[in-house]
Amino acid sequence: MKKTFYILVAALITVASFTSCSDWLDEVPKTDVPAKELFETENGFMSSLAGLYITMTDETTYGKNLSFGLVEQLAQLYDKLPEGTTNPADVYIYDRETSGAFNTKGVLANLWLGQYHVIANANNLLRWLDLNGDVVITNENTRKMIRGEALAIRAYLHFDLLRGWGPMNYAGNTKAQSMKCIPYRTVADKSKQPLLPAKEVVEKIIKDLEDAKNLLSYEKETSLDGNQNRDRRFRFNYHAINATLARVYNYAGDKENARKCALDVIDNCGLSLMNGNDGDPILFDEVLCGLSMHELKENLSEYFSDGDKIELKYYVTLSTASTLFETKGTESEDMRAKSTAFIKDNEHWLSKKYIENDNQVIPLIRLPEMYYIACESLEGEEAAVYVNSVRNKRGLSISNNKKCESREAIITALNEEYRKEFYAEGQYFWFLKTHGLVGNLKHKESVTLTEESFIFPLPDAEKEYGWVETSNNAENENNNGSESEGSTEEATPEV
């Protein structure tokens, strides 16, 4: 899908687009501005940083497949099926190419490549920042901001790679933590890197995020509320990094640190839960960090648009929607299932999140998740307070509050909440995987999820490459983005 804005910012991206497994990093950027010249000015560094965010809006990553696209299809959140199949379970065909239909294998290969492409750009920016950032950028906080955001982006993308290619139920299965899954790249070169155990990947993600958080600590007291700091919500600001840490700690089963980070965000970010979504179904005032997509409505009209027949878009049928959102009985007042959230006809529902989206934002992390993480880290009445805080703001009465009397009850309540709250945002599938929730989905009983449904296989190009047990580049093992200029002789072969 063409994004016209890319034409305007070609010179902002430090590494050119890719076409094969060897092209995710080019030593000489194919832009109008050579790298050496680009990084001779502060504006060049800022342009490179902006380029990272822009590249993240590509449909291979958060512009589709890691937001409303593939991961939502894997969670069976649409009834719309692509041409070439009548079986929703076909989306879990990971091991072979399929003509038409979902072609999940090809989508996953591009997702892998797209994520590492952005990571390569982030590492290249960090490299040049080390080389001459102190000379070019005179303001210390500006240097900290660039480094902190680049580290946060690197960590955030590696975490989503881990969630896809890593083990199921990481926190509840110590054996899973030793599963080798992805490389963690911290240098801008083509050197072969090993597949690391999931536990080591988690540790590196947390290290990058904690470093980023410390670098941006100067804005710890900065509220994200209001127009003055509105633009910071389109970047990895201090509170967004803290929220991402809460997400990662929760994934890792570190409830104490997860709760600490989540409550810090709730208490200090300056944003509050909203009690209405009329005109703003994406709930922008709860977005801690999101991506700005130029001409979002136009770019996403193929999937969500008003005017065309709903059955040609990413719809759900009335019967599926009623189960997804529990629209009967005491749950019927939930604003997330009302006409303010969906276009409805007699048979179909179509989300308004990308139709009525004047801020042109694709959310990466929103405030309600912090309440859910706090809930998951506690027990009993203390846990119930946080999940019910969200539910009450969404229009559900106090008389319908969740009890959270057991660990099972907490996970059941959160299962329902993630499904409703983050519909078309790409978080529900990860919730299921994180908690090992296999079997039949309540809203799609014909589909049975197994452990194999949740673990993506390596792309063929990576398997052919031949991963090794230890790195041939010792610098990558310990470096946090501060390597000196140079390149390796070993490069990824063409496929």
Give a brief outline of the structure.
By secondary structure, the protein is mainly α. It has helices spanning 5-8, 35-38, 42-55, 70-74, 104-136, 140-165, 198-215, 238-252, 255-268, 296-299, 318-324, 368-376, 380-393, 407-421, 428-434, 451-454, 460-465, 474-478, and strands spanning 180-182, 196-197, 287-292, 315-317, 342-344, 348-351, 361-366, 439-441, 444-449.
Q: Secondary structure elements and their pairing?
A:
Blueprint: H1 5-8, H2 35-38, H3 42-55, H4 70-74, H5 104-136, H6 140-165, E1 180-182, E2 196-197, H7 198-215, H8 238-252, H9 255-268, E3 287-292, H10 296-299, E4 315-317, H11 318-324, E5 342-344, E6 348-351, E7 361-366, H12 368-376, H13 380-393, H14 407-421, H15 428-434, E8 439-441, E9 444-449, H16 451-454, H17 460-465, H18 474-478
Describe this structure in words.
It is a single chain. The protein is mainly α and 495 residues long. It has a domain at 8-215 and 439-468: Serine Threonine Protein Phosphatase 5, Tetratricopeptide repeat (Alpha Horseshoe), CATH 1.25.40.390. The protein has helices at 5-8, 35-38, 42-55, 70-74, 104-136, 140-165, 198-215, 238-252, 255-268, 296-299, 318-324, 368-376, 380-393, 407-421, 428-434, 451-454, 460-465, 474-478; strands spanning 180-182, 196-197, 287-292, 315-317, 342-344, 348-351, 361-366, 439-441, 444-449. Helix 3 (42-55) runs parallel beside helix 6, helix 7 (198-215) packs antiparallel against helix 8 (238-252) and helix 12 (368-376) packs antiparallel against helix 13 (380-393).
